[in-house]
Amino acid sequence: MQKEIITARKGVMSNNTGTISRRAFYGVTLLSLALLLPVFGCVTINVVFPAAEVREAAEKIVEDVREKKLPKEQVPPQSFRWQRRIFIWQLPTAFAAVNVNLTTPAIRKLESSLKKRFPQLRPYFDRGVLGETNNGLVEIRSLSGLPLREQGKVRRLVKEENRDRQALYAELAKANNLSPATIPKIQAIFAESWQKAAESGWWIQTRDGKWIKKP
Length: 215
What we know:
The chain is mostly helical. The protein contains six helices and four strands; from the N terminus they run ααααββααββ.
């Protein structure tokens, strides 16, 4: 009888120990997940706006509109690319490649309109009448020396050009499920591409708002 009681007590102790172990395991697991959540939360925030992909899309569009190849940025050193590849492999979900959609009918129509208008704008860029701003638009620098009728033509062309460019930036955001709040970022990226395509001697606006002639 005494032996049975001792055995029963051992069984109860064993069950209690198992329960405590399971509780400890679950507690550690939940704590680990809680600690990891902020990390993955931060990673998600960092990839909301695909700047590199938008820049590549901007260059494609500008190259087509201007019928000109843009100079490419310098390729990163091999060691940097290797480190980046490892980092991307470690975080496949957060840093997966993003393909920016450029094929909507609205985008194609706007791109075609910009391409058709450029030959009319080019002479005024050449003469210093127009300049490329730092927010992806065209600005009239000076109408001095132009007949009144031609001044009206320039104003109309600039108004139409900026209307199409602004519509293009908004459509790119919409087609790629980007917030309207990202449109200024899209404009800034396109501004770099428009200025890359500018000829030597054309007016371009620097990031701090100063106007210079492109070297």
